[in-house]
Structures are given as C-alpha cells and as structure tokens.
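Progress against Task 2.4 (sequence-to-structure conversion) is shown through the following example record, which the project officer requested during the mid-term review.
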Amino acid sequence: EKSVYYHIQILYLIANTLFRNKKFETSQNYLALMHDEMLNKNKKYYNTFKLKHHLLQALNLNYSNKQHNAIAILQPLINLKHEDIETLLDIRLSLIVFYFQQNDFKKAHQLFSKFYHTDAWYLEKTGKEWVIKKNLIEILLRIELGHIDLVESRLLSFKRSYSKYLKSIHQERVLMYLNFVERYYKNPEKVTSEAFKNTVENSFEWLGKDKEDLFVMSFYAWLKSKMEKQNLYNITLNLVMDSKKRDIK
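Structure tokens generated for the chain above:
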C-alpha cells in the first residue's frame, strides 16, 4: 500500500526536477507514469496528487509554447476545495502569470483579487519565496493596469518587508530588479535606450547561467519585453530556448 504512494511521490519529484531543468518533454513522460500510478489501487491516491500533477503538466505546457492548453488545465481548478492549500495557491499564482504573459491583465487582476488574506497568512501556508513572487507579480500587474498610485506603496512595502531577508540569502538581485522596474514606471520612454539596456545586461550576471530558474527568467522577460518593445510571451519562450541551447552545448 505504502509503496504506491511513495512511487507516485518519487515520480512527481523527478518530473518536477526535469521541468526546472527545462526538459519539458521528458518531464511530461514522467507525469504520464505518475498518472498511471495514481490510477492504481482503485485510484486511492488520485485525489491526493491530482493538483500537483495538473499544475506541473500546465507549467510544462506553458513553457513549451502551448499556453492555451496550460490555461485550460488550470482554469477549472481555481475554485476547487482541497486539503492541499499550498498547491491550490500555486495554481492560482501560476494562472495569473499565464494570463499576464498573454497580456490579459484584466483576468489576471480578477484572479489576483482572490488573494484577500494577509501576507502573514500566506507565509504560514506557503513560505517566503511564494509570498515574494506574489508581491512581485502584483507590482508588475499594477504597472500594466496603470494603478500608479498603488505601485509606489507596494514597492516601499516590499522593500521594507523583504530587503533584509533577501540580503541575508544573497538575493540582492531581486532588489536590483525592482530598482529597474521602478525606473521603468517612472520613465518608461528611457528603458528602450542603449544606455539602459547595457546597464541592465551588465547588472545581471545570472542571466547567462544555463540553470537559471524559470520563474526568475519570467520576471526578467517582462523587463526585456519593455526594453525591446516585443511581446512578453515570445520573449519568455526565446529566453527559455536560448538557455536550453546552452545546456546542449
């Protein structure tokens, strides 16, 4: 009985690791094996793992230029009741990112408005990394929606709440990124200048690393899309493809 549960868990961990290393097709293969195991024992553990399976499947599709399929998987799950609260919150945040990448800011905002708890509540349920991502996404969303009055307060609140923590884990690049975001919303016309582009490119040494986190790349893609005046989703996929080519080399 227990071996089935742990087998499903191991297959999920392998699929997740492959996804984070941008091996999307292989990750999907392991998700298929995971799904087969979920059907065993009269689907005893199906409900336990279904959210994790659907989320990882959608993430693989999103970064494989199949975003509409990814959205179709997650959309029916946003109002679902389930004991796996952390994955439910991951699903909502991921769907917000998918809408954001499609420039559907209205849908992204509607879904974001469902995050009505305090950061302290989300910290308890998910941890700091998730809360930091949520706050960063909100700042970018407020900029796109033209809620400039809220952008400044969100930036100040973020720096006040997380600067010390980010420095303690050597993630000052998040604060550096926010400084560029702030410069964009205050002077959007200047981000297309060669001087600004060079400053950004020279500031982020991690951009050239082959194993860069997909979500970090997604945040950078937004800034790059503003500098290049190009579609956000296309920029995101190009960054992912470039990193995969470097992996092959």
